[in-house]
Amino acid sequence: MLFSMQIKTKFIIYISAVVTLSYGITFYRTSNFQEDLVVAQAASQARMLYRQIRLTRQWVADHNGLFLVKSEGVASSPFLVDSELAARDGTLLVKRNPAMVTRELSEYAAREGFGQFRVTSLNPINPLNTPDEFERESLLGFKNGLEEMLEIENVAGVKRLRYIAPLVTEMSCLECHEEQGYHVGDIRGGLSVSIPIDWAYSEIKKNNLMLLFIAVTTICVVSIILFRLVDSLIVRRVRSLADVMDRYPDNIDRSELERLPVGLDEVGHLSQNFRELCQRLDISKQELELSQEQVFQNEKLAALGRLVAGVGHEINNPLAGMLNCVKSMQESPDDLEQTRRYLPLLVKGLDRIKHTVRQLLNYGRRAALHPQSVDIDGLIRECFELLSYGLKNIDLQLDLKLNTPFCVDVEALKQIVMNIGINAIHAMPDGGTLTVSSRQQESTILLDFVDTGIGISPENQKKIFDPFFTTKEVGEGTGLGLSVTFTLVKRMGGDIKVVSEEGKGACFSLELPVEMCTNGGEEAK
Asked: Do residues 500 and 456 lie in contact, with contact meaning Cβ atoms separated by under 8 Å?
């Protein structure tokens, strides 16, 4: 048998697998949704920042730059013409174009942790605006009609969103870029924005851990609840029903059938159907026992009829001799010597008739099957004395080695011996040898009946214990003898086997469990 598992365990495993799969799919989709949402929000933030920076640059360009008082940390740009301007009061002012304003605003945003942005171009004036690999691919894509570029970048374990969109040359831009050959509407570069989103992924990780904890807790709680429900609603009730089924019909109290699980569910219906089945089986069993008892009695009476017909001459022979003695005594009433000689013969003949009639009466008496103390070897001898009428041309050899009384079903054993004996006699119509042996093997007695008769064909050996099966002519047998024998042996807890070869006789072997009668048990009468 393969690895066995209770139904409730299987149920919980299957449910847990389904719930785990459902939570796994939900967990996966939720995690992806959170990541998509974070990326979408970061992208929206980058686009908004891009528009704000672009508007700021546009404002600076529309006002011809932004002038700051020259001071420490506020230096002029070497890439601008007229990068310095002196006021009337002598104050030096330095010019800031849109690119410089963008870069300095980016430095402020970086210090605040807000993000970074810068202008880049494939032909930069300032080497600091040289594009990196992501920016270069994006700028090349802008020439082919690409409107924007997004990428999640992981640098030293820190994730950030990279966003870049093109910068289109406008009229106010030509002041600085006309010398580079740009015209209005040309894409002169791109505005690159970097927004840190590592904090968002950290939150996603926390949310995932929380979802995992909720999923595991839910699976455990649901499994425990389902385990309890399945155990109380199904398993215990089915186990109770199965226990009664296993012990039915011999090892249960009939009141247990009334305590089986009830209800309008499947288990309740199954219990009700089982109760009804038990009632029908009990009725059928009673009817079967009555029928079997009737069959046994009919077979016994049929065998008794055959016995009476066979032993008739056993009574007729002594009667004939007795009548001759009586007739001689009547003819010579004064012959006292003859009378003294004939009287013992009359008594012997009467005793013989009395013994034969008593054996017939004992065999025909109906008795309940229950263990009694009996001399089994003596019982076997008694049975074959009854069968002596059929043993005239048969050599009966008794090898009986049971010298101790045993407790067995006397009447059943008597009928078994008689049926097998009659069957052996009929199997040797022209005479032969019948050997009957008995011996003890631990708590079992072994009886063997070996004849040298006509034997049994292989195909018939499978059917000889079937009811009404017979190879005799119509009217010569009922076909119930061996069937009744088989049933009686099984009821006594024993076993019967036959070994035969056609034309070479047969051997019937019986194994019967017995008990030693050491306490003065009831004697068979």
From this structure: yes
Give 213's Cβ-side CA count (13 Å radius): 6
Q: What is each CA distance from 149 to 32, 53, 136, 186, 258, in whole angstroms?
A: 21, 17, 11, 18, 79
Work out the end-to-end distance of the chain between its first and last CA atoms, rounded to an integer number of angstroms: 52
SS3 114: coil
> Which of 12-16, 159-163, 285-289, 375-379 has maximum average pLDDT?
375-379
- Per residue in 51-89, is it b (16+ CB within 10 Å) or e — as a string? eebbeebeebbeeebbebebeeeeebbebbeebeeeeee
CATH 3.40.50.11240 corresponds to the domain 369-525: no
H-state helical runs in 112-154: 133-143
Overall size of the chain counted in residues: 525
* Cross-sheet strand order for the sheet of 515-516: 371-374, 406-409, 515-516
C-alpha distances (whole Å) from 153 to each of 139, 163, 255 are 18, 10, 78
Buried b (16+ CB within 10 A) or exposed e, 103-115: bebbeebeeeeeb
Sign of the CA dihedral with 184 first, then 189, 195, and 198 last: positive
Q: Quote the crossing angle between the two packed helices 481-491 and 266-331, to the nearest 10°.
A: 120
- DSSP string for residues in 158-169: EEEEEEEEEEE-
- Ramachandran area for residue 372 (φ above 0: left; ψ -120 to 50: alpha; else beta): beta
Would you state the structure tokens that stand for residue 12, as one six-digit string? Answer: 């919980």
Specify the pLDDT at position 511: 93
CA distance linking residue 137 with residue 119, whole number of Å: 15
Instruction: Write a three-state SS string for 325-380.
Output: HHHHHHHCCCCHHHHHHHHHHHHHHHHHHHHHHHHHHHHHCCCCCCEEEECHHHHH
The yes-or-no verdict on residue 1 having pLDDT over 60 is no
* pLDDT tens column, 195-229: 888 777 777 788 888 888 888 888 788 878 877 77
Phi/psi-derived region of residue 202, left when phi > 0, alpha when psi is between -120 and 50, beta in every other case: alpha
* Pairing assessment for the beta strands 187-196 and 149-155 based on DSSP bridges: unpaired
